[in-house]
Structure formats: C-alpha cells, structure tokens
Automatic annotation (TrEMBL):
Signal peptide: none
One of the record's GO molecular function terms: catalytic activity
Name of protein: MOSC domain-containing protein
Gene3D superfamilies xrefs: PK beta-barrel domain-like
Length: 187
C-alpha cells in the first residue's frame, strides 16, 4: 500500500499561523519555515516543545510538532457529517490536497514549493478543544479501524529540515523513508 505513495504529488491549499496559543490560526498569504524551528511567527516555533501540555511534562523535549498539516479532504468528510471547517480553523499551518497524509510512514519527507523540506514525525492527537470549537467534531475526527484500533484523522506533525516560503498553490512532493516503514504514532 505505501509503495503507491512514492509518486504522490499534492498541493498546498492554504497556509496559517498564530503568534499565540489559539485553537484556530489565521490564514495568511505566505508562511516562512525556519530549519529546526518551524513556522516563523507561530506560537509553536522552536527547537524544544511549545505545546503547553507537553511543556508542563518536560520543557526540554525536542519539538516534533513544529508544523501541523491537515488534508483538506478531511474537511470534505466532516462536512458530509454536518460540520463546516475551513483552513486554519483546526490549528493547522498547512492545509493540503491530494496527499494521503495519514497513510505516510514516520520519516516521510515533503518537498513543498521551491525549497522547503519537512519530515513527518507523527499524528496530531485531537483533544477536547475540538469540541469547544464545534460540539461533536472530536468524534468526527476519530475512528476505529477493522481491528478496533483508534484512528486519529486530525492531521500530522512535522519538523522543518530545509526552510523556505510556502503559499497556496505550491506543489508538494512525497519522498518515503527507507523500508521497513514505521507507522505514524501520536506525537
């Protein structure tokens, strides 16, 4: 299944950032990725963890959540369940189309725009704040697979390997890591 992901090419639909720890992020024209840090001007930028609950556990742990990506196909899916979600509203920095983000293995690299390269570190673990945004949305972004295992659909997290400007319309190309592939886990 994952070998078919090698040739995936997608597109940036929208980019967002927020200087404060807000649930939703403001859609902007461009974002600037900084190698080893994340999105310039975003509250989650830094080499060490910035997510408040993780800072409380250990402020010195590496920041594996520098960039948050959500596939716009999720908005289509939750829309069929009666929810209306637009880019940036679920806190993502990059909204994509055409890339099966949740199927990518850990360590996949995304080449975005002219120069940016990010590495997928894991899954976003959706929390109760999603229900504060729209009641019932948390259940819509969680599922169970055939074996009864929890499926988190609220996007993936990444670190920045090579910085650069990103804007809507930029192409995204996937490069898978060497096998054996490691499935995404929550980070």
């Amino acid at each position: 299944m994952m070998t078919s992901l090698v040739s995936q090419v997608g597109e940036v639909m929208s980019v967002s950032r927020s200087a404060t720890h807000t649930f939703s992020k403001e859609v902007v024209t461009t974002i600037h990725l900084l190698a080893g840090l994340g999105v310039e001007g975003d509250a989650h930028m830094g080499g060490t963890v910035k997510h408040r609950s993780r800072v409380a556990q250990n402020p010195d742990q590496p920041n594996l959540r520098q960039v948050h990506l959500i596939h716009s196909e999720l908005f289509d899916e939750v829309g069929r369940a009666g929810f209306h979600v637009e880019p940036g509203q679920m806190g993502e920095n990059i909204t994509t189309r055409g890339i099966h983000l949740l199927d990518l293995p850990t360590g996949s690299k995304l080449y975005i725009g002219e120069s940016a390269v990010i590495e997928i570190t894991g899954l976003r673990n959706p929390c109760a704040q999603i229900d504060n945004f729209q009641p019932g949305l948390l259940s819509a972004v969680l599922d169970k697979d055939a074996d009864g295992k929890l499926v988190r659909k609220a996007g993936v997290m990444a670190i920045v390997l090579v910085g650069g400007e990103i804007r809507a319309g930029d192409p995204i190309r996937v490069e898978l890591p060497p096998e054996p592939f490691r499935p995404l886990e929550r980070v």
